[in-house]
Write a structure and sequence with these properties.
Layout lengths: L1 H15 L4 H16 L7 H6 L1 E2 L2 E2 L15 H16 L12 E6 L10 E7 L2 E6 L2
Antiparallel strand pairs: 1-2, 3-5, 4-5
Helix pairs in contact: 1-2, 1-4, 2-4
């Protein structure tokens, strides 16, 4: 559980540390939704570290920069978000339905966006589910 929480916290930190707390929880939930999806690996760390021909699923992981958090306060918040999200067995957070497995920042337009339906926005991140 420690390893999964650390991987999830790193993803929250690098993907959403400047976002409102609700956006950080949404990123964490999407990451866990991928773990539960048959289209992605079945562990948090494998999802976070997953790559393909286009690069990494989460760009921070393969950007060549250090993966050591530098902002201690943001890192503590990311760890807290990860712990709460992982322990939310009853689904009381419920920010993102399990079908929501994609997101991106509002200043980019990824190639896959036309195959998805937007379901919400928190901070600068837009969240999607697949059309099928």
């Amino acid at each position: 559980m420690i390893v999964a929480a650390t991987c999830l916290a790193l993803n929250v930190y690098f993907e959403a540390r400047s976002e409102p707390i609700v956006g950080q929880f949404a990123v964490a939930q999407v990451t866990l939704n991928r773990v539960r999806s048959s289209h992605y690996p079945d562990t948090v760390c494998s999802v976070v570290k997953q790559g393909n021909a286009n690069g990494c699923q989460f760009s921070w992981y393969c950007d060549g920069k250090s993966d050591k958090p530098k902002d201690n306060e943001a890192w503590a918040i990311a760890q807290w978000v990860a712990e709460i999200t992982i322990s939310d067995e009853d689904g009381s957070l419920n920010l993102m339905p399990s079908s929501v497995i994609h997101y991106h920042a509002d200043y980019v337009k990824p190639f896959w966006v036309s195959s998805c339906i937007a379901v919400g926005k928190y901070g600068r991140h837009i969240f999607y589910r697949s059309k099928i």
